[in-house]
Amino acid sequence: MYRARRGTVTSVACIYIAILNLAAAKDTEWNEWQSADGERSLRIVGRLFWDYADYGDGGPVLVAGDRITSARLGVAGKLTSTTDYLLQYEFREHFAGRDKTQLRYGVLTYKALNPLMFEVGQMNEPVGLEASTSQRANTFMERALPFTFVPFYHFGGAAYYVKKPLFLHIGAFGRTYLNTVSDAGTGVSSRIVYSVADNDTSALHVGGSYFVRRPDSMSLRFAARPESAVTDSRLVDTRDIDFVESYKGAGLEFAYVRGALSFQGEYLAAWPSRTGDRPDPFFWGSYLYASYFLTGESRRYDSSRAAFNSIRPHHKRFGAWETALRYSVLDLDSGEVEGGRERNTTLALNWYINPKVRLMFNYIWVDGKRRSLRTDTEIAQIRLQLNL
Q: Would you call 165 helix, strand, or coil by DSSP?
């Protein structure tokens, strides 16, 4: 009884805070406090994503429905003038009737040695542009298919070097703590970016990533949803690859922003190293997209993180309107591993009502094949996104 009540209370609290945030979406920030000298601060951070998806025929049964795909809540701010903190939990499992709280971020950042910064705690590893950009600021409802290769939330330590036009991020990581996925292991990830940005209306971004990870279980699996979080089905899936000593990955990334128009793309690859004479497979994926703001805004590039920030609409009455088109591909077939191939084309329409509220619509044409199973279907989905 206690567990059920705790889950219900958490869910209600997330909804209440999201509605309060909607009502308070204005220039003054009700969720921020700071000391008189400005050296210490606290800000409530969070987000709520509600998705609905409808799936066409032409493959495995994908059941239409709705789901809370993210319900995060936490705090961020300054401990001292040189130390920042971020603590954030994910509560989405509570909405599905599972009383499981996941730690997403628990990070301390030391900034006294500019242009060097140091981080310790649980964080996302430095791999790729789309993975380094918060999902609340990404153009599409879900990250592209190649995201399956990215080693994401792990506990470790990292160092930044940020001095325009260069950005370098490297870290050593262990396992994930307080998560529903057990992925014990160790690894190192790195990312380097060259970028030039001008007045929030233009940017050029070119970079690359490299990572190595050694799973304790000596087993590895890559699988991807069809860029829809309402379903748990994976149309491409390697299943467990055994006798894996380690796996390596690398990626290339670019973005270009010029006024209301922008382009972004990435190439990611991963190759496991197996024991003995067993063959080493090679997997890869990529995406490319273009977006355009019908109301004249620009995607906001942040050179201090080599990533994008959320949009600020120019028009308070009508908000901002963005349309985008993306093509993504993922190839999980290699030698004796038949994980399948998938190609998706996504048309997106986003309405940024204000900086805290966004309505999203994605229409996805899915073309996939795994062994003898062919998938040729379409997905229509919407999201209500509320940000703290």
A: coil
What CA–CA distance (Å, rounded) separates 92 from 87? 16
pLDDT at 23 over 80: no
Nearest CA to 308 among 324, 294, 331?
Answer: 324
Longest dimension (CA), the chain: 66
Asked whether the beta carbons of 344 and 367 are under 8 A apart, the reply is yes
CA distance 224 to 333: 13
What is the residue whose two structure tokens read 């748990």?
Answer: 232
pTM of the full structure? 0.91
Residue 182 has pLDDT above 70, yes or no: no
In angstroms, rounded to a whole number, what is the distance separating the alpha carbons of residues 334 and 80?
A: 51
At 56-96, the pLDDT tens digits run: 886 666 888 999 999 999 999 999 999 999 999 999 888 87
Distances (CA, A) of 185 to 151, 216, 228, 236, 311: 11, 5, 28, 24, 37
- The pLDDT of residue 46: 92
